[in-house]
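Reply to thread "Modeling small-molecule complexes from scratch"

Following up on the discussion above, here's a worked example others can learn from. I took a protein sequence and the SMILES for pyridoxal-5'-phosphate and predicted the complex. Inputs first:
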Amino acid sequence: MCSTPLRVAVDAYLMFLETNLLDPKIFPSAKSLEEEAIREIGKLVSNPEAAGYITSGGTEGNIVALWVARKLLKRKNVVAPSSAHYSVIKACDLQQLELTYAALDETYRASVDSIMENVNKKTLAIVATAGTTTLGLVDPIKEIAEIARDFGCFFHVDASFGGFVLPFIQGAPPWDFSVDSVSSITADPHKMGLAPIPAGSILFREKSWLEAIKSDAPYLNKSSPTLLGTRSGASAAAVWALLNSLGYEGYQKIIKRCMDLTRKLADGIQRIDGLDLVVEPELNIVAAKSDVLNLRDVCEKLQAKGWLVSMSSQPPSIRLVVMPHHDPEHINSFLVDLNECLEELT
Ligand SMILES: Cc1ncc(COP(=O)(O)O)c(C=O)c1O
């Protein structure tokens, strides 16, 4: 789910390689770039006032979101759909929270009914996904937000993947801080934001919520509201450079190109006998299923031709993520090879 980072981001990264965000007094410019980058990401997720910081990625963002939730509410149960990224398991495990999985509906999105059945007065947080890892789907955020509001629980939206796609898609379903009860959002620049690894972000609706995890560092005579201590300013500089050089229009162009290629790939797959789409792609992820073929055999054949594709289990399918470094030639030659693999297998 990562792409070749843009040159401007790599240059900014290298310029700030020796900075340490733990100590903004020594590295004030790195700190300013991080604050400005968070403000820009905040604009993309409908809340320029959101408080947050540049993380190492989606896993850290999800851990911190539940950490903050735990500081704010003295409850222990977390409800997430079974499609949630496995980092949610880690986040719960680390903090001894009890995770209950809600079922998916027939479209493979979180079932609102199942979330409703599993949420109660003890629920600390609901986690939903805007851009699921395997199918790229957006859970019904608005409906889930209403449940979170009714039970007074925290609502974290994991948009690690979708956070740098959805803001640029016209007619995307509501998923961000424009939905009233969304408490926090993870959105990773090192996925669709074209930043070098590591670069994620975590944003909270209220500044005071992030302050809840502030710990004193007595030897530095300061406190910091982050999970990590020493953090390179390089990632923040890279994200700042991307947001300022590409701007909204730049990202929009990149996302449109990815979505056009996604359509081309999905159409090509639909034309192949023996394969079908699991769902119509909502973001730039295509999943292909088959009633007649063993998909592992297909993956092996593809690998022999130089294509390393992943398989997912919910439901069994070949998972293809169309990234900014792909071009129409990649899609064409993949479809030719996929066709050949299927002919060899039937
Ligand atoms: C929806 C979602 N959340 C979280 C993560 C974890 O992100 P990272 O690998 O940057 O920690 C991923 C990774 O693919 C993801 O797809």
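What I'd highlight from this example: The pocket of pyridoxal-5'-phosphate is lined by residues 1, 57-59, 62, 85, 87, 129, 133, 158, 160-161, 188, 200 (CB under 6 Å). The chain is about 40% helix and 15% strand. Questions welcome below.
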